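Troubleshooting log. The previous structure file for this entry was overwritten by mistake, so regenerating from the original sequence record. Sequence copied from the archived sheet and checked twice against the printout by T.R.
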Amino acid sequence: MLDTTIRWLEGISELVGRTVAWLTITMVLATFSVVLLRYGFGIGSIKLQESVNWMHAAVFLLGAAYTLKHDEHVRVDVFYRRFSPHLRAWVNLLGTLLLLLPLAGLMFWSSWDYVAQSWRVSEASGQVGGLPALYLLKTIIPVTAVLLVIQGLALLLRQAGYLLRGEE
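Regenerated output below.
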């Protein structure tokens, strides 16, 4: 049951991460279009330029849990790499409990009013000719917090299982 729960939770991170990865290709094509239109034809598009920024934000935020799942996140690795697997499991478990989950909770809590206000006023880009529905972009912030909690729970269960059973 523990393994099934971990796989299910990690499956969410995997699905979101693989899906959002496609935005990077779209981002490259949009950036190419911005440059081609601007320097090839003298045509500027604020919406297209903003869309690149929005996609970058989405990839960065929505890809965070996927990155954590694959243990590719930034870590201060001065001591960690020399630790035994058992000690690494403890570091991961305590780091998840004491840092990741509280930080994700704070991220969710502190962004809630910010996002809600944006939805209340149907916030759009501040640029003339910019993208509408900025509130959708801002909504990614609490969604990211939820995704980090989901992946954090999977990591917590995986590390606890390792410590209890002594195996992955």
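The radius of gyration is 20 Å. Archived copy saved in two places this time.
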